[in-house]
Amino acid sequence: MTNTNHGMEWYTDSCIKTARSVMNLPDEYDLTHHDQDKQAFKDYEYERWAEEPERWSPCINLEQLAARPDLEIDWYCPDWIPVGAKTIISAEPKTGKTILLFHILKAVTEGGTFLGKSCPPTRVLYLTEQTEQEFKKQVCEVEGLLGNKNFFVLLAEETPEAVKTWEDTLQFAERMLSITKARILVCDTFGGLAKLPPGGENDAATIQNQINKLNPLFKNRYLSVILTHHNRKKSQNPKDTESNLSISSARGSSAFVGGAGHLILMDSINGTCKRNFSFFGRYNHGATRTLELVNGVYQDATLPTGRYSPEFSSYMNTTFGGKNG
Fold first, then answer.
1. Residue 135 backbone phi and psi in degrees, to 5
2. Got the DSSP string for 90-113?
């Protein structure tokens, strides 16, 4: 369907073949450059059920819903990126969420492992607020990621002039997903790319409305969307021991619960390479873990149940006078 809104006449189906040629993507090609025998799922673009012409009508009954095949995989990266869902990674600025995400996406685009768990290979479309030099510098912090041909990025200075609104951005992303056949869309950061109005990042209704505008993209049933977001700054009051891993620490917090299925909160441990995580939503709700970056590789530093990290023990001693048992 030709789209001529917002001066985007170039943004048509007829451009796909040309775009693939310019990007060195032939009309027919494998989902990744890896051994297809190792892929754990088939390459679905849009599910079609020929016997049901109304399969994408606005309303379907539960018989039609039951006839639709289940997804062949549940996770692109187990525990971190569920298939067919929106994931939000929220942390304070400069906590390392982008580097963590790069490590995860490297494993996914290579069909490798993250924290010892296998990742089915797929392509990634990454929308960033960063310029080329900023983005490249961060990519180089993850060994072996630069040069990955399954990782596509739209840099800040390369954003088409016609892309002015959040709706334009999502329309552009839908077209690029079709061209690249990427199955993971990253918006880094959500607050910047969603063009939130003044005060909007602290308004739950505004955030949920913008998140919900992603829903039409999920006609591609194997799509996963990752949004990075900022937590509120920690209190400078030494008497304030509120955790930065609670839902209330994320700006516009109540919207995340309703708008995204998988919420990951990330917090730094001062003076260390360790990061604490808490998970909320429909997947790993209530789970917590600690990761440590050692020699450029993330390792699981979560202590066995019943044991406390030195940082947590210190917190308990300060708060409850050592009654941490």
1. -70, -45
2. EE-TTSSHHHHHHHHHHHHHHT-E
Residue 311 placed within a domain: no
Q: How many helices and strands (H and E) does the chain possess? A: 9, 13
Sole residue written with tokens 């996770």: 75
Give the total number of structural domains in the chain. 1
What range does the domain containing 202 cover?
Answer: 75-288
pLDDT for residue 40:
42
Chain center to CA of 164: 22
What confidence tens digit (pLDDT) does each residue in 66-92 have?
A: 888 888 899 999 999 999 999 999 988
CATH number at residue 198: 3.40.50.300
Cα separation, 30 vs 121, in Å, equals 11
Cα separation of 122 and 102, whole Å? Answer: 14
**The tokens of 140 are what?**
């180089």
Does some domain include residue 129? yes
Q: Is 190 exposed, middle or buried (0-12, 13-18, 19+ CB in 10 A)?
A: buried
Maximum C-alpha span of the chain: 69
Residue found under tokens 């494993």? 107
Q: Please give the Cα distance from 155 to 129 (Å, whole number).
A: 7
pTM above 0.90, yes or no: no
Crossing angle of helices 166-180 and 15-22, in 10° steps, is 70
* 255: confidence class by pLDDT, cuts 50, 70, 90: confident
pLDDT tens digit string along 104-136?
A: 999 999 999 999 999 999 999 999 999 999 999
Query: Does residue 98 have a cis peptide bond before it, meaning omega lies within 30 degrees of 0?
Result: no
Residue among 272, 247, 219 nearest 46 (CA): 219
Residue 167 has pLDDT above 50, yes or no: yes
- CA dist 290 and 131 (Å) reads 31
